[in-house]
Amino acid sequence: MSEATLRVLTLNTLAPFFADWPRRRSVLIEGLRALRPDVVALQEVAGGGEADEAGGLLGPEHHLVPHPGRSADGVGAVLASRWPMRTVGVLDLHVTPRTAALPWSAAVVVEVAVPPPLGPVIVAHYKPTWQYDAEHERELQAVRTARYLEQVVAERRPERVDPHGPDAEPHVVVLGDFDAAPDAASVRFWTGRQSLADVSVCYQDCWAAVRGDEPGHTFSPDNPLVRAGLMPLDRGRRIDYVLVRCGAHGPTLDVADCRLVFAEPVDGVWASDHFGVLAELRLPPHPPGVWH
């Protein structure tokens, strides 16, 4: 991390039982260590706890917080950070019987000890359900997670805030494989374009912040692993996100850059059926809520 800059990555690595895992693993290791992300949300990784495959991909210097629950084959999700993390809360997102199809559907919320002046930062590794026809469940999961994060923010907000001073809001980043495109109700809710269940929040979509209307598909038929997988007719969607929470005057962190990673083969090897999303976050030029 350069001064006052945080590099955040989310990547679904595709369970290691598919598509020549030894070669894919080598591509992932080389790529992840070249990118040097500070905070990483990995989905579809095998193992658990400190022995998780995520540790093998990222290296021993990372702290790991796994999602609760694993599929029968041992696959789940892990959040990793270069700095120590304190678990703030774990939300079970099994909101209807259909969500049982993903045992590790959850939101893991941690406080990452990012050094000053940027940190600490609240990070939520969010994994809703995946089925095409389960947007109702994803709406419920989004509302449950957003409500909890608002409670976390309220606990950290100073009791007295000068209405004419800077926004006294902690930094909150939500990232993961949302399994929903930007026009889905659950993502529209996250990004402040609609309310759900009498709840309204707003998070800056890092991709849209710097890429505008570029499709940015993270699950694409251009990737042969998509065509060979369980959803071979998918026409391409952007379903992996890094989001930054907004206060009354906008996001508390500025998006310096956001790009796709692992979006090309290496010596003919595709790392995963998903492309990763890498965002670089920094302090804004001046605090939101202050006229300069």
Task: Characterize the structure shown.
With 292 residues, this protein is of the alpha+beta class. The chain is built from six helices and 13 strands. It has helices spanning 21-35, 53-58, 135-156, 185-190, 206-211, 224-227, and strands at residues 5-12, 39-46, 63-66, 75-81, 85-92, 106-112, 121-127, 171-177, 203-205, 240-247, 250-251, 254-261, 276-282. The strands form two sheets. Strands 5, 6, 7, 8, 9, 10 and 11 form a seven-stranded mixed sheet that branches. Strands 3-4-2-1-13-12 form a six-stranded mixed sheet. The model has no long low-confidence stretch (mean pLDDT 92).
Flag low-confidence runs: none
Q: Average pLDDT value?
A: 92
Please work out how many helical segments DSSP would assign: 6
Largest sheet composition: 7 strands, mixed
- Tally of DSSP β-strands: 13
**General shape:** globular
Quaternary structure: single chain
SSE sequence, one letter per element: EHEHEEEEEHEHEHHEEEE
Q: Cα-atom Rg, whole angstroms?
A: 18 Å
Summarize the amount of helix as a percent range.
Answer: 10-25%
N- and C-termini, Cα separation = 28 Å
- Beta-strand percent range: 25-35%
Helix-strand category: alpha+beta
